[in-house]
Amino acid sequence: MSHLFQQRCFNHALREAAAQCPGCGRFFCREC
Fold first, then answer.
1. How does 1-32 read in b/e, with b if 16+ C-beta sit within 10 Å?
2. Residue 2: predicted pLDDT
3. 19 has which bridge partners?
4. Nearest to 11 by CA among 21, 3, 23
5. Scanning 19, 26, 28, 31, which has the fewest C-beta atoms within 10 Å of its C-beta?
6. What is the pLDDT of residues 2-29, one digit of tens each?
7. What does the alpha-carbon distance between residue 6 and residue 12 come to, in Å, rounded to a whole number?
């Protein structure tokens, strides 16, 4: 299992993830 702080945004690969969608499991940054 990957930790949130190790993930990158699905839409912006250079940004770190701030949240994970419970439906699709993708990670998103604060801007998304």
1. eeeeeebebbeeeebebeeeeeeeeebbbeee
2. 65
3. 28
4. 21
5. 31
6. 676 689 999 999 999 999 999 999 999 9
7. 14
pTM assigned to the model = 0.77
Nearest-angstrom CA–CA distance, 23 and 15? 21
Measured between alpha carbons, how far is 1 from 31 in angstroms, rounded to an integer? 24
Report residue 1's pLDDT band, with 50, 70 and 90 as the boundaries.
low
